Amino acid sequence: MVHDFAYGAIGFAKEKPRSFLAEKGAKEVGIELYTLSKTYNMAGWRVAFAAGNAEMIEALNLLQDHLYVSLFPAIQDAAAAALIESQETVQTQNERYRARKDAFFQAAKRIGWNGSVPDGSFFAWMKVPDGYTSSRFARLLLDEAGVAVADGSGFGEFGEGYVRIGLLVSEERLVEAVNRIGNLPIFQKKC
Ligand SMILES: Cc1ncc(COP(=O)(O)O)c(C=O)c1O
Q1: Atom of ligand 1 nearest to the CA of 45
Q2: Could you tell which of 5, 35, 36 is best to mutate to test the pocket of ligand 1, judged by most ligand atoms within 8 Å of the CB?
Q3: Looking at 85, 103, 132, which one is the last position of a domain?
Q4: Distance CA 19, CA 60 (A)
């Protein structure tokens, strides 16, 4: 078992995102991967770690030795600082995503657009109106509202019927995007 815990620090529910390694017996059967991309805004720095089953870590280490060269030391130092020093910024960032999520879903509700409110991560998965595929709807939003979303079908069979919104801009900008979408004739008719 390999558990990807990329969004382990971004959670809005009472219960924190659960680490695989917190489960009994986890270390006997698997490892957890943790990228620093999301928690510390280090996307593109290619820095992450794996923890868990010793044999699997050893195998990973062997592969790493042969497939990669080491990370630039400044990135290693930055990663160490990110992990060791105060985690206050992680909390602040989590609250920022929570505020964006709330603003986005309030605006979506006003235009009658349904989706599932996430308990974690910085994505919103929104329903595609009847008569549209994810791909056609994503295209419509881009062409007619000037809003870029990710076509859900690109994430596998269960993504069809949805588009994915990244809550990666300010609340004002997210609300503006929803308002523009709400002005489309299809939303005037009711989604
Ligand atoms: C679920 C998930 N896992 C892993 C990653 C990989 O992050 P990175 O390649 O930046 O370390 C991402 C990044 O988008 C992600 O969304």
Answers
A1: 10
A2: 35
A3: 85
A4: 20
Site to substitute for ligand 1 among 37, 97, 155, most atoms within 8 A of C-beta = 37
Per-residue tokens: 169: 């801009």
Max intra-chain CA distance, the chain: 58
- CB hemisphere CA count around 122 (13 angstroms): 21
- The size of the chain, in residues, is 191
Say how many Å lie between the CA of residue 96 and the centre of ligand 1: 20
Q: Report which residue type is found at 135.
A: S
Proportion of the chain above pLDDT 70, given as a percent: 98
Average pLDDT, the chain: 95
User: pLDDT tens digits for 129-179?
Assistant: 999 999 999 999 999 999 999 999 999 999 999 999 999 999 999 999 999
| Cα 104 to Cα 97: distance, rounded to the nearest angstrom | 10
Residues 103 and 79 in one domain: no
Whole domain around residue 141: which residue ranges?
89-189
